[in-house]
Structure formats: structure tokens, C-alpha cells
Amino acid sequence: MEDGFSALPPEVPDVGNLGGEIPGLDSAVHSVGLAETPIVSSLAPTDLEDASQEQGTSLGSSVMELVPSISTDRSEELSPKAAVTDVSSRNSLTVTSVGLSTQFILPKMSAPVINLADEEKDQLQKLAFTRIVEAYKQIADAGGSHVHFSLLAYLGVEFPLELDPWKILQKHILSDYMNHEGHELTLRVLYKLFGEAEERDFFSSSTATSVYEMFILTVAEALRDSFPASDKSLSRLLGEAPYLPKSIFNLLERLCSPGSSDKDEELPSGDRVTQGLSAVWSLILLRPPIRDVCLKIALQSAVHHLEEVRMKAIRLVANKLYPLSAIAQQIEEFAKEMLHSVSNGDDTMDRIDGDRTELQKDLDKPSTEQLSVGAVTKDISSDTSQSCVSPNLSSSSLMEAQRCMSLYFALCTKKHSLFREIFVVYKSTSNAVKQAVHRQIPILVRTIGSSSEFLEIISDPPTGSESLLMQVLHTLTDGIIPSPELILTIRKLYDTKVKDVEVLIPILSYLPKDEVLRIFPHLVNLPLDKFQAALARVLQGSSQSGPLILPAEVLIAIHGIDPDRDGIPLKKVTDACNACFEQRQIFTQQVLAKVLNQLVEQIPLPLLFMRTVLQAIGAFPALVEFIMEILSRLVNKQIWKYPKLWVGFLKCALLTKPQSFSVLLQLPPAQLENALNRTAALKAPLIAHASQPNIRSSLPRSVLVVLGIASETQNTSQVQTTPSLYCRCSQFR
């Protein structure tokens, strides 16, 4: 029947011929054929255009099946006439019915509703979300990025959590953070999650909080690892995020204090430490509610066991953070506690070690930036001293002392009055701590200079800090012309509080010459190393006036010291002489000749004169002839009347033989005999020398007798025979 309907020609004569073959139905068939023809012709061409092939075929079949069923049934029940009349009326109804049926069916030809399984629905949502994400370029070109970001954030919240829309967003953001406007999109997502976390529904709030922490931490870690340390994206993100969870503070702590956590697989580079400290600084400036926690991270880094890390943090704290009045007191108290920790022994260290986790406890507390915008900021303890103890170092070690004190030293350069605390602590510290202090003093003092606050500290140093005071004074004057205020402060200090002349050494070059000579015995009484320092200052003088005291004047001043009168041990004086002779480029042969020439004229002779003569011969053998002149002058001064000098004279004679023989032969017989008895080694060579005819003839008989060259009896007989011979001769006259 479908084939016949499909092949039915449109011409009316064919329809009439077909109806003529059935008697009694000509008019009926013809009428029906005429009515069907437009229906068929109208349905056939729109079979594929207005509906599917299946719906068109079904409609055509229904119409064709309807017409024969009517004509066949009525032809069997009615007469031809009645049949024609009845069929005609029914034909009209049939045509109308078919037309109405066609109009009713066509509007129902729409897209079908398909029921999908849950997995298919999830896949479809995920696909749609991905397409929206990937359309960023076209949307950005059209200027719709803000709408795009808002839509993604909204869909991320509305989508089922198991679809993990946040992972898709993270992947998109981190694949090209700059070109994908990752910062703006991340903030839009974070603020949407922040708002969701404010909802009263516990489940929704908890979910949003968890997603928020995961999202910001993932992005922050990616920025840390992917971007160069100089990039500011991490600082910008943390500064503009709605709030920072504990995990972010842990991230910053690991950046600023590498190696402080067991989770650190490897230590980051110094640039990464700078990146972390830069982020902390930004947060301290921009986010007051979390200022204390961030400050603790910076302070912990400022006492780190690695010097590179510690120095970076100290520069940040001292140069950037300490000038901020809101946190200056906290920084100062922390640094002061670190300073005292190295001097209070193991008890303090044990207590500090017990507080090492204080920062972690603060991070475990609810953040001061709560999810609730109206939350009240909680008080945070300023005790971060837990970081002062290294597990592998003792409190007495040099490195440990430097680690704990370096921050305080840096603060002293910003606030000079803090230096007094160093003097207070110094006296009760161990040798290792003192050494650490002395290492820091030069650069610290040069930075501070002779400020009024610093001079006030110097003018009244605590007892027990003398060695520290001396280093400070030397640093202030080494290679620098001291200010009049500094000189006045030191002189006043010597006159009133510190009676040790050592305190004047740094400014000796700038004191009047007569004042230096007046205190010179006290300088000699100093330990040898300190006297040598004073000697260098005196001989060097100032760059303007040259040497304050000449080398010859120094030796003369040393010889002018009377141990009994001045209360200076003799050994101190001899050590001072030795110190001068060690500097042969300064105390030259000419200087010594000048000194000896002046000393030999002093009355009484200096106690150490002969010792100096002996040293001069040993240092400069060419002075022997000059020394012989000195010895001759000593004979004229009756050197034997000075027992101590007499011993030195004989030693010098023995040392300088045979040149000294001529001087010895100038001695009176009694003193010559005493000399030979005291120094037996001189007798034989002196006799040999005097036995020479030219020498013997010039010597008195008494000297020859002392030498044993002539006998005393022979001398007496000669005296007796001489008058008798004279008498005999007179008889012949």
C-alpha cells in the first residue's frame, strides 16, 4: 500500500479511470480521489523537510488506510444510491478530519527530551565548564573578561564538588599565569569562596573554607616554584587575597627560614629567601591584622643558623621594619632578649628551647584575619625567642653568640642609645661571647661614629667593660682625627672614673707633649703589648703635626723613670727599653748615639744606663768606638762609685775587648785591681796588651804593679838607690 501511495500520479484522469473499475463507486471514488490528491501531493514533498522520514511515512499511510476502509465497508452495507449519498457526506468529513489531523501533528515535531544517566550528566557539565574556560581568548578579545571570571567562579561553587572544577581552573591559571590573567581570575575565585565561607550553612561553609585553603596554597606554591625570585606575583597575591590561612604562613616560614622544618627537602637559594622576606614585608605594611605573625616570621629568620639567611633578614628588620613605630618596640624587645640569652647561661637557653614551637602555636591558632569580616583581632605574644637555639650548638660557642646578637648590633646603628646594653651584658658573658662582641664592634662603631648619645655612653661605662671600652675608643680614633668632643670625653673619663692611663692611648697623639711626658711612667707600667700600642701612637703622632715625641726623647724618658720613686717595677722599665730596641728602623744608630751622649751627662747617671750601652753595642757593633768614648767619660765620672753601674761597666769592657783595654788602663790602680778581681777574664789579655813596649812605657808604675808586670820591691829599691847615685855624682863636681 506504501508503494502504491508513493507512486500515485498527480493527474486527475488516472484517478477517474481507477474509480470506474468498481461499479457503483464512481462518484465516491472520484470525490475521494480529488480530495486525497492535494493531501498526498502536499505531504509527499514535505516528508523529509518538516519531520523525520519515519513520521512522514506514518502520516501518509494513515491517510491512505483511512479512505479504502470507509469505501469498502459502506459498499457492503448500502445500496448504490444510498451509498453514493452517504459516501459523499463521509468523504467531506474524512477530508476535513484528515486536514485537522495534519494541522495538529506538525507543531509537535520538536527536539526530543533525552533522559541521561548521572555519569553522563556529570560529563556534560564538565565538558561545558571546560569549554567556557577555554573560551578565554575570544572573550578577552571581546572585552568580557570580568564577566568570564565571575561566571567561572560562580560555576565552580555551583558545580558538584566531585567534578573538581577548581582543578580545571588551577590548571588553566597556572598554564600561563600572565596571559591568562591568572592574578585577576584567582582573586575572583578566592573572593567567591570567601563569600561562600560566610554562609551559615555549616557544610557549605566548611567546604568553601577547605577549597579556599587548597586553592590559594596551590597557586602560591606554583608562583614560588615557577617564577623567578625577583617576581612580585606571590607578594601581590598574598597582599590582595581576602584572608591568609595557616598553610600560607607555613609556606612563608619555610621560605624565610629554610631548614627549620622536616618537610624541607632542600634549602632554597638566597634569592628565594629574599622573595619570602619581601612578601612578609609587604604583608606587614598592607595587612595590620596579621602583622604580628608576619613579624615573628621575619624575626625568626633574623636569628637563623645560616649566616646568609640571617643577614638578609637582619637587613630587612633593621632597615625597613624597625623604623615603623607600630612594631619597633616588639623588635627591640626581641633583640634585647636574644642579647641577654647568651649571657644568662644554660637556664635561659633551656627555657628558650622549650618555647621553640611558639610560632607554630600562633599559626595553629585561628588567624587574625578570620573568615568573618567583623572578627576581632586577637592578641599575639611577642615571644619568638624560640628560634635562638640551634640544636647542634651550645650557648657558649662563638657562632651561637653571633647568631643571637647580630640583630641587636644592627639595631644599635639605628638607635645609638641601645649600645649601653652591650656594655651591661659584656661583663657577665663567656669568653666566646666576648670574642663575638669584639668581632662586631669595629664595623658597628664606625657606623655609629662620635654621636652625642654614644659619647654619653662612653663617659659612664659599667664596671667590668673596660676591654670593650678600649676597643671602642681605638676604633673611634684609628685612621680618624677624633673630634674635640671625643677627646674631651676621654680626658674627663680618665680624670674622674677610669684611673687607668690605658684609656688615654687612643688620643695620645692629640694630647700636649708635656702632658704625655708627665704620664709616660704610667704608660711604661702597662702590659707590654699595651705599652707598645702607646709607643706607636706617640711616635706616629697625628697627620697634621707629625711625631708627638722623638725616638730619642722616648728613650730618655724611659731612663728617667726611678722604680723606687715612681713605683714602677724595674722589669717594666727594662721591657720598655727592649721594645724600643726592637724597632731598629726608628731607634737607629744615630738615635742611640744621641741618647747615650745625653744620658752620660746626667747626674746621677740613670740606673739602666750601662744596660742600654750594652744593648747598643749588641744592636749596632759599629758604635764600639763611640762607646769607648762613653766609657772614658764614665771613668772621669768615677763610675765605680755606682755599684750597679760599675758591674755594667765591667761587662761592657769584657764585651768590647781589646778596644776597652785603653779605657781600663785609665782606671786608678785600686779600681783596676778591683776590676781584674771581678772579671778574671780580663786580666791575661790586659797584661799582654800592657806588656807591649809602647804601651808599657806610657803606663804608671802603679798600674804595672797591679798588672804584675813590675814588682813592688823593685820599685822601692829604685827609689832608694837614686839619691846615693846623685850624691856620688855631686862629689865629682
UniProtKB/TrEMBL annotation:
Residues 1-20 are annotated as: Disordered. InterPro entries: Symplekin_C. It comes from the Eukaryota. Residues 500-678 form the Symplekin C-terminal domain. It holds the Pfam family Symplekin_C. This is Symplekin C-terminal domain-containing protein. It comes from Camellia sinensis.
